Amino acid sequence: NYLLGVGRADCTGPVAEIPLMGYANPDQVGGGLLMRLYSRAFIVADLDDSRRVVFVSADIGMVSQRLRLEVLKKLKSKYGELYRQDNVILSGTHTHSGPGGYFQYTLFWITSKGLIRPSLNAIVNGIVKSIDIAHQNMKRGRLFINKGIVENSQINRSPFSYLENPASERSRYSSNTDKEMVMLKMVEGNGQELGLISWFAVHPVSMNNTNHLVNSDNMGYASYLFEQEKNKGMLPGEGSFVAAFASSNLGDVSPNTKGPFCVNTGDSCDNPQSTCPVGGATMCMAMGPGSDMFDSTRIIGRNIFLKAKELYERASQEVTGPLSSAHQWVNMSDVSVELNATHTVKTCKPALGYSFAAGTIDGVGAFNFTQGSVEGDPFWDEIRDQLLGEPSNETKACHKPKPILFSTGEMTRPHPWHPDIVDVQIAAIGSLAIIAVPGEFTTMSGRRLREAVKREFDSHGTPRMDVVIAGLCNVYTHYITTYEEYQVQRYEAASTIYGPHTLSAYIQLYRGLARAIATNTVQDLPRGPEPPVFNIGNLTLVPALTADRVPTNKTFGDVLQEVRQQYRAREVAEVTFVGANPRSSAENATEHNFLTVERYASTSDRWHVVQNDASWDTRFYWTKGLFGRSNVTIEWHIPPGTERGVYRIRYFGHYRKKLSSNRAVSIPFEGTSSAFEITTP
């Protein structure tokens, strides 16, 4: 028995003109909304409330160090020493369709056009609010754990790297991905259902890098389906049941189950370099199971949801026992690892290899770099040396066989390009140990880490622990491959920034945390060096917010392209309005809804909201025109089974109006389509 609390809060942020975080594609900026992003918080406390553990899964690309430090600062000012470095885990789902700009290290700062305050604030406030809600609703309850296999939802996107691992190790596993989902169910003492956390390893990249609509991808869609089912009669984003689908060791795992094909010729490009005969690596893309990226997101998300639902309904193994948590900051650029009694190796200053620029079959790079590069290229080396400085001989030697493209650990202008100080953290809830990792562990890296931590618990008198990896926590440090995978330098290996012994270093560190928890000596762990906070100005490459304007003889919210009078289920109702920049709304309120779909009830002569902008079936597109003008198009993809009747679509925006040279206000407005009829369900 524990005290349990769950909470969910919006963390969407600006849905227009902000680069989306994940594919590092500068052209992929927000242009609307498919689904809202949420932070989901879970608090577990002892009955005597002496110890607490907080797990947060947020619909964002990853948790950045800046984000974590700001969240903890806010929690400290609200709750004192209740929520701290050691007992709060912040994990990102790893959607690649959320706004970026919430990073302080220069590399990420460049791909997301600076530190974008509205984006950072929306996530900080959303996470804190979700924890507030959970904190205010603590109830006595019980926890249950269940595990099961998810089929047809993932492939290994670097199978040739995986094959580098020893055959004796590979033979112990039936697959080159981890198919197991671990699910934690939370129930109140009186039987009232509270929520669940599922951990499953797959990249949320069913939506590809041509997408411009902010959304939470396949994992978010699984959350959406589960919450819609449990919060009956509620709109998306409403209701007390909270379902988090959290990331795990997804480093080399793709949801694009058809595998890699050459976009131009249709041939398979499942080769060690992921390259095509014509057009090279930029043509090699993996395809999901659906007819388009929306359909693939739906199929994969539904698979994951259905397995979670089955595990949830059958969960009977209760989680009991004490709570504990351990955290350290570590300088990952300088860890000595004892491989055995005679052999000690070291981690390196961070650096990215050539294949980092190649991208993956889920999102290719901008230039024709190929994966599996163990040689540099004089042309790119020369450009790099001129612009950014040549890597030192020490760094080159440390990272071998990686040819270094960016020696980020030696790049400090205007601020360091990559973190040195990294969080390692484990929280134990009875027999469940959650390993919070600062990046993307590959399948085999994750297996080695889980096994090492489990062995550590076993040998110190805490047998039968369930060990789960929570991905993309606390600070982002790219990928962690095994030493063997590192040797062939595909994308994941090139992005293993602390060198070939990164995984060994993490295993040593997490074993230390597990030992401290098992032997009850957490208080003796050194805190480690504190991470820096950089004073980053407000300079961004995001266009300045200017006054919104309308075409002649029009006003904001006027309909430019009307709906049809009649639709059937499976058709798309579409309406275009005179719009305004959605960022003018985001500055006002995170809870702002851009649209509703409403149904007319003749009995009461009232319109009732049946869908909002968090719904999977609605799409909100913003198109920027010239001279401050813009259009908004709203689509409703009418689902099968929709009740017959009369409907309308409404748009809610804010336009920005200049009062003087340095003062502007946002003024709310709305638009409404004509009524239309749905004839067949």
UniProtKB/TrEMBL annotation:
Neutral/alkaline non-lysosomal ceramidase C-terminal domain location: 511-678
The keyword Lyase belongs to this UniProt entry's keyword annotation: no
Catalytic activity: an N-acylsphing-4-enine + H2O = sphing-4-enine + a fatty acid
Keywords: Hydrolase, Lipid metabolism, Metal-binding, Sphingolipid metabolism, Zinc
BP GO terms, sorted: ceramide catabolic process; long-chain fatty acid biosynthetic process; sphingosine biosynthetic process
Group of enzyme by EC: hydrolase
Annotated Neutral/alkaline non-lysosomal ceramidase N-terminal domain residues: 2-508
GO cellular component: cytoplasm; extracellular region; plasma membrane
Binding sites annotated in the UniProt record for Zn(2+): 94, 203, 440, 479
GO molecular function: metal ion binding; N-acylsphingosine amidohydrolase activity
Name recorded for this polypeptide: Neutral ceramidase
Native source organism of the sequence: Himantopus himantopus (Black-winged stilt)
Gene name of the encoded protein: Asah2
